[in-house]
Amino acid sequence: MAKHCLITGAAGFIGSHLVDKLLAQGHRVFGVDNMILGKRANISAALQSPHFTFQELDINDLKAFREFLKAQTKGQPIDTVWHLAANSDIQASGTNPDIDLERTFLTTYNTLKLMQEFAIPQIVFASTSAIYGELAGALTEKSGPLHPISNYGAMKLASEGVITAALERFLKQAWIYRFPNVVGSRATHGAIYDFLKKLKKNPAELEVLGDGSQEKPYLHVSELIDAMVFLFQKEQNKLNVFNIASDGSASTVKFMAEATVRLAAPGAKIRYTGGSKGWVGDVSKFEYSIEKLKSAGWKPRLTSNETVELAIKENLANLN
Ligand SMILES: NC(=O)c1ccc[n+]([C@@H]2O[C@H](COP(=O)([O-])OP(=O)(O)OC[C@H]3O[C@@H](n4cnc5c(N)ncnc54)[C@H](O)[C@@H]3O)[C@@H](O)[C@H]2O)c1
């Protein structure tokens, strides 16, 4: 059945792919983004659809957000908010924690506030592996204690908390998805994006933060969106928490740097800055268990390394 959906962060990397997917499924989609990282080009195709309405606004400007919802929801109440707006530059908030307080936590708090006002019953939330901190072993949804090491992870964990608390007050259902590193076309940030930009500037040398040994699971944005929508339709508990990732595989930064050089600037010299972490708050190694996701009936198709190679090619095409 067609639903009325609101996507926050709709012009961002993942949000814009979600816009396309929900429109393709026949839903009515509303999108908001303050364009700090979002790009109009990401939603250029969606803007042609009569079933998509987009407004540039800051979620923390409650007056503007309320006006938008008031104007748009007349006779067509929103069923679900897909809340993706957040700071996605983890490094930046290492030096200025206010960034994650405002863009990651307050956007969630304020979105919930208006969801209560407009009686919107369901939220789907883009959480992260960063909430687990530096726990060892394969991380399951029950792993703990949860001690994030970045402001970003801390504000995502706090966001999960206000969502579960809202379930006690007015919210009917919540889906909390803990993403790994997500890559693919329309990327607005991330290691591959940075590598390609650096190589465009200087095709002779690539500077890589850390010693290259950092190792994390990478998931293609198309697979992520597929899993998000699959779980939203299939899992109908009041609270549905899932890790989403590729199957047990991971990629090192060394692999990513070498693959980027091979595909974008053959012969470029790679210079590692050294140290096991890329930046303050970087969880340099983690491993995800996706047993719960697989039990629900969803399986990834690509390995982490296949994902990385595909994303490099896509981002290279975007950049050119
Ligand atoms: N990309 C990843 O690897 C990854 C991993 C884990 C979690 N996530 C989460 O997924 C979501 C989407 O991430 P992304 O990679 O597409 O990043 P992104 O930066 O491309 O998208 C986030 C969007 O939110 C917008 N935004 C930020 N603050 C806002 C505000 N106050 N009001 C309105 N819009 C605002 C930005 O302009 C941007 O377009 C985020 O919540 C992010 O934390 C992403």
Ligands in the model, by name, code or SMILES, are: nicotinamide-adenine-dinucleotide
Which segments are poorly predicted (pLDDT under 50) over 5 or more consecutive residues? none
In whole angstroms, the N-to-C terminal distance is 40 Å
The helix/strand class is alpha/beta
Shape designation = globular
Average pLDDT confidence is 94
Helix-strand topology string: EHEEHEHHEEHEEHEEEHEEHEEHH
Helix content bin: 25-40%
**Into which percentage range does the β-strand content fall?**
15-25%
Per DSSP E runs of 2 or more residues, the count of β-strands stands at 15
C-alpha Rg (nearest Å): 19 Å
Q: Strand order of the main beta sheet, please?
A: 3-2-1-4-5-7-12
| Count, helices | 10
Largest sheet: 7 strands, parallel
Summarize the entry for a quick read.
This protein is α/β, with parallel strands linked by helices and 320 residues long. The protein has helices at 13-24, 62-72, 90-95, 98-117, 151-169, 191-201, 221-234, 253-264, 291-295, 304-319, and strands spanning 4-8, 28-33, 52-56, 80-83, 122-128, 138-139, 173-179, 181-183, 205-208, 215-216, 218-220, 239-243, 251-252, 269-272, 287-288. The strands form five sheets. A seven-stranded parallel beta sheet has the order 3-2-1-4-5-7-12, with helices on both faces. It has a two-stranded parallel ribbon with strand order 6-15.
